[in-house]
Structures are given as structure tokens and as C-alpha cells.
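Subject: Predicted fold for Inositol 2-dehydrogenase, 338 residues

User T.R. writes:
Posting the sequence so we have a shared reference for the thread.
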Amino acid sequence: MGEALGVAVLGAGHMGADHVRRLDRVVSGARVAAVADPDADRARAAGGDLPGCTLHTDALAALDAPGVEAVLIASPAEAHEAALLGCFERGLPVLCEKPLAPDARGALRLAEAEAASGGRLARVGFMRRYDPEYQALKELLDGGKLGRPLMLHCTHRNVSSPPHFTSEMLIGSSVSHEIDAARWLLGEEIDAVTVLRPRSTAHAPQGLRDPQFVVMETSGGVLVDVEIYVNSGFGYQVRCEAVCEGGSARIGEDHAMVVHSAAGAGQEIAQDYLTRFAEAYDTEVRDWVAAVRAGGPADGPSVWDGYVASVVAEAGIASLNSGARVPVRLAPKPGIYA
Ligand SMILES: NC(=O)C1=CN([C@@H]2O[C@H](COP(=O)(O)OP(=O)(O)OC[C@H]3O[C@@H](n4cnc5c(N)ncnc54)[C@H](O)[C@@H]3O)[C@@H](O)[C@H]2O)C=CC1
Ligand SMILES: O=C1[C@@H](O)[C@H](O)[C@@H](O)[C@H](O)[C@H]1O
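User M.O. replies:
I've generated the C-alpha cells; pasting them so everyone works from the same file.
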């Protein structure tokens, strides 16, 4: 391995371009060796000025480009499986944006393929695990000071949804973060999901079921509720309150400066995830680069975590469409994820 880890970034859209910037300017010990996007202009805009960085319209070609030692996948979910399989075949360590795959069957194929490759090569980009507030909440819950957790109340609001967003993606793409965060915070699996459907906002595109109210039941009897509202129109808000036997703890309150004037009191509200979770993305990528340089991403959110999130999301989508409570059924866990 060279002085700085050579990373190929696949996908140069919102997340990919931001990860290129992060690898180039924020994270030490890494350099961008290749950028791939079928949209050549996007690849050029993200990586065209970086010394030693080759540009590609074919993602698999980027895996074989000179100096590539690791891969960051930021293409749409539909493209993750081919890219991850390409990494597994070549033994390349990889950080893949969430969701791992568009459906649970694809996610399971990936867990089986990684297990067959002989060891863990991939992490999934559930960046909330690297957010200082989420980490503080986990430390508090793990420490047991508040007693056993009984409920998590979660809020997840976006200003607006991208044009391709479907009602199913509110769960499969957005709530996938709460699914992973709840499993990680509580150390429990999710056994069943019920999705309730309030009337939709007039500000959502025609036919989009927005907001939705997701209720998850864990193996230990904790109830996790999530308000997902992706066309709130006013801000990006991610909150979580843990209610425990001996108290409660809340994260994600708007922590900007409070300004008082003749017009009243006010505070800026983050408008997107790149602002709200800037530090989490930096820490996520910094930690991954350090782990790869030290020999491999043996910890962090795994392909199995990505698979479980997909199964829970699929149960949620079934509940969204039927109105029924849907149990979660997981495949046997391959030994590498023990
Ligand atoms: N962790 C987080 O908070 C967030 C994660 N994401 C995830 O990041 C991924 C990308 O999302 P965005 O950047 O918002 O999408 P985007 O649509 O802005 O960018 C995706 C880019 O991938 C390119 N692309 C399409 N097929 C490709 C392929 N086969 N190989 C390489 N590139 C390909 C597209 O041309 C486009 O430039 C998704 O998995 C999404 O769920 C997105 C937003 C936030
Ligand atoms: O991952 C993300 C997006 O894909 C998703 O669409 C948003 O709802 C989330 O807030 C963001 O973190």
C-alpha cells in the first residue's frame, strides 16, 4: 500500500462529489485515485482537477485503474450489487453508501458473496453511528444510568424529496437510518413493523405517501416510532428521544445560536443532511480509511447490518401497502458476522 490510500469513488452525484472533496481535503492518509460516473461531466466536475485521478464512465473499469486500493460506492442503490461484487472478486476494501441494495434478496446475495470471499471487506454508510450526539446517546444507554430503554421516539424530516422518490423509499432509503440506529443503540433486533399512514401533505408530489409513521417492535420489547416526513418544506430535522425506566434523553435538538430581536426569537434550521451530519460523514470516512490502512474494515456497520436493514425495510413496505403488522424474518447469519 502506498503512502496515501488510493480510493476509487463510484458515483459523482450529491454524495459522491462530497466524498471526493472529503477524501481529497478532509481525511488524511487517503487520495482519490479514480472517479466513475456514467455522466462524464459529473465525473470530471468531481475529480477532473485532482492529480493522479483517472476518470471513468464504467464503474468496474475504475476498480482496475492504476493506484486503486479501496473503493467508496456512492452510486444509486440499483448499482451497488455489481460494484460490491467487483470489489469482493478483487479483494478490495469498500465503503458502500446505504441502502446496501434495493431489496433484501439482493442484500442477502451480497452477504453470502462476502462470506464466500473469506472475510469482511465492506462497510455500509450508516453514518449516524459516527455522529457525536448518537454516540453520546449510545454511551448513556450502554452505561445503564437511565435503566432499561422502553421506547425510542424518532423524527426524520427532509425539506423536499428528490424527483425519483417513491412512497416505498421513505422507508427503504430514509428510515433505513433509524432501523440501523435503533438496532445499534439498543443492541436488539427488530421483530415486527407496522406503518400508519396519516393524510399526505399537499406539498408532496402527486401520489407520494408523505408523511408516514413507522412503529417497530424489538426482540426485547422496546417500541421504536419514526415520523418520516420528506417534504416538510422547512428544514432537515433528525431527532431521537430514548425513554427509559429512570429518565429520558433526547438528541437532535436544533443546536444553532438563538437570536432575539424585535421580530422575536429565532434559530437557523439545517436544510440538508450534508450540513447536519457533516461531522459524522467526516468521521465515518476517516475511520474507514484508518481501518483499511491498518489491515481491513473488520468492524463498523457490516453487510449483515445492511441486509437486516433491508429486511426490516421490506417488512415496513409490506405494512405500508397492506396496513397490517408485518413480522421480520432473517436468514441464518454467516459465521463472518458473528
Ligand atoms: N448517508 C446518507 O446520508 C446519504 C446517502 N445517500 C446514498 O448515496 C447514494 C447516492 O445518492 P445521491 O448522491 O443522492 O444520488 P445522485 O443521484 O445525486 O448521484 C448518483 C450518481 O451516481 C451515478 N451513477 C448511476 N449509475 C452508476 C453506476 N453504475 N456507477 C457509478 N455511478 C453511477 C449517477 O449518474 C449520479 O451522478 C445512494 O445509495 C443514496 O441512498 C444519499 C444521500 C444521503
Ligand atoms: O440517506 C439519506 C437520503 O438518501 C434520504 O433520502 C434522506 O431522507 C436521509 O435524510 C439522508 O440521510
